[in-house]
Amino acid sequence: MMMGFDQALTTHHFVLFNDGGAIEVSVNDLTDTKNRNAIRSHLPHIAMMFGDGNFEAPMLVHDAKNVPGTKAMTERKAAIRYQYVETAKGGRVDIVTSDPAALAAVHQFLRFQIAEHKTGDPTAVRTR
After folding, report:
1. Residues 126, 65: Cα–Cα separation, whole Å
2. Alpha-helical segments (H) within 9-99
3. What element of type H or E holds 125?
4. How many other C-beta atoms are found inside a 10 Å radius of the C-beta of residue 105?
5. % helix, strand, coil for the chain, step of 5
6. More confident residue, 9 or 3
7. What totals of helices (H) and strands (E) does the chain contain, helices first?
């Protein structure tokens, strides 16, 4: 519940794109408006925090001091755009960059998230 929604009743997905990636969170049950609304409240805040170079949330969630990629993402924050998009079952944060160092860091961060959340998402980069 650290994120404001029940992780057992929601699903995370992380996607690596050639221009960045995406973090998507959705409710498992379409009638679960409480968690859907909590996702929709949390993700815009995450997009804003990440845009400011603040990655404290994933560090708290994963009980880690150095989440892979976040140091470079903080250093290259001006080269990365985070945009919240509402979805039918929750929301998504699109991460976009044309900076090679930032892109490598974003991919490192997303691969860590895939492993930590055990999503089974592909770790290969695909075209958006």
Report:
1. 29
2. 33-51, 56-61, 70-75
3. none
4. 23
5. 45, 25, 30
6. 9
7. 4, 4
Among candidate residues 25, 28, 50, the one with its CA nearest the CA of residue 39? 25
β-sheet bridge partners, residue 26 = 11, 90
List all residues 6 or more positions away from 4 whose beta carbon is below 8 Å from its beta carbon: 38, 41, 42
**Which residue from 19, 34, 25, 32 is spatially nearest to 61, judged by alpha carbons?**
25
57's tokens:
């949330």
Alpha carbon 58 to chain centroid, angstroms: 9
Q: Please, which residues have CB within 8 angstroms of residue 22's CB and are 6 or more apart in sequence?
A: 13, 14, 15, 92, 93, 94, 95
Q: Which two tokens stand for residue 109?
A: 């961060």
Per-residue pLDDT tens digits for 64-106: 567 899 999 999 999 999 999 999 999 999 999 999 999 999 9
Q: What percent of the chain has pLDDT over 70?
A: 91
Q: Give pTM, 2 decimals.
A: 0.91
Nearest CA-CA partner of 69 in 113, 126, 99, 116: 113
Indicate whether 60 pLDDT > 80: no
